[in-house]
Amino acid sequence: MRYEVIIIGDTFDAPVRIARLLAAAPLEGEWRLALDLARGASEARMNGAPAPMLAADVAANPPDGRYFGVLTIYSGGAVVAQAPLFTMTMSDGAVATFEPVFFSVETARARSDTSPLPAHQRALLAGTPLMCDELRLALEQIVLERQSPPPGVTPVTPLSPGERLNVQVFWRATGDRENQDRSPMVSFQVLDDENRKWAQWDGVLGDWLPVPAWKPGAAVRQDIPLTLDAATPPGDYRLLLVVYDPSTGRPILVAGQEAAVVGKVRVAASGGIDP
Questions:
Q1: The CATH number of domain 2-107, selected from 1.10.10, 2.40.30, 3.40.50, 2.60.40
Q2: 172 backbone φψ class: left, alpha, beta (φ>0; ψ -120 to 50)
Q3: Is 24 in contact with 54 (CB distance < 8 Å)?
Q4: Does residue 228 contact residue 161 with C-beta atoms inside 8 Å?
Q5: Closest by CA position to 119, among listed 7, 264, 13, 225
Q6: How far apart are CA 92 and CA 126, in angstroms?
Q7: Which residues lie across from 203 on neighbouring strands?
Q8: Measured distance CA(125)–CA(115) in Å, rounded
Q9: pLDDT by 10s per residue, the chain, length 275
Q10: Nearest-CA neighbor of 226 among 259, 200, 195, 192?
């Protein structure tokens, strides 16, 4: 097993990687990583003692801006799990804000076909979370990910009809789960200006960990696959979120809306994502 931590600028069309660290994963004990971004230095410690790393590349004095950290776990050369670790901002050569993202192996699906980060990913909802007061849930972030893009495709290349788009959704329980015995459904849809659907996915909110099992403060990542209809015409489309009660079909309000627009996708006759 190996850990890889990378820190990347949160820009879609000109990504900048300021750190990449790779190390053997300890099977027992505590593993800590320290970074000095001002000097471009790093150190790993295992149970308090310095530990070697397989790769350590840290840029000194990275430019001001917003960054996110990603953890990848390898078994041999295959990716076992991958998930965001934190977001941070740099200002005048120092870390101005730092926000960790809860992560456990269970919150990230095992997969071996991951695309390079962040070349085909874009984070949405980088401001105020969307609240679902009835369920005491918050939708904190959505990440759009292009699946297996062909060679030569850049992040700004529009999607092609029939192409697959993965939606990573980060939920958080905002209150007590008492009496929350429902397992609501979530629907993601791609609609045009005339409300025709060109992609749709419906499933249990939380997927592997249904809502009744969440504890206060729990953070859950859900991966949702969307495949565009092969006949999707060129144009801009809305990415819509609907949460509903499966027993009645009644929408559950998210940010006060029965259907919340969470981003846009752009489709062309041939081959990015333009939220």
A1: 2.60.40
A2: beta
A3: yes
A4: yes
A5: 13
A6: 22
A7: 186
A8: 22
A9: 688 888 888 765 556 788 898 887 766 677 788 888 888 888 888 777 888 888 888 988 888 888 888 888 876 666 777 777 888 888 887 889 988 876 555 444 433 334 343 446 667 766 678 999 888 899 988 887 776 555 556 556 677 888 888 888 888 888 765 556 678 899 999 999 999 999 999 988 887 677 887 888 888 888 888 899 999 999 999 999 999 988 888 999 999 999 999 888 889 875 444 44
A10: 200
**Token reading at 127:** 């401001």
CA 192 – CA 253 distance, rounded (Å):
22
Q: What six digits make up the tokens of 75?
A: 């078994």
Q: Which CATH architecture has domain 121-267?
A: Sandwich (2.60)
Q: Where are the domains of the chain?
A: 2-107, 121-267
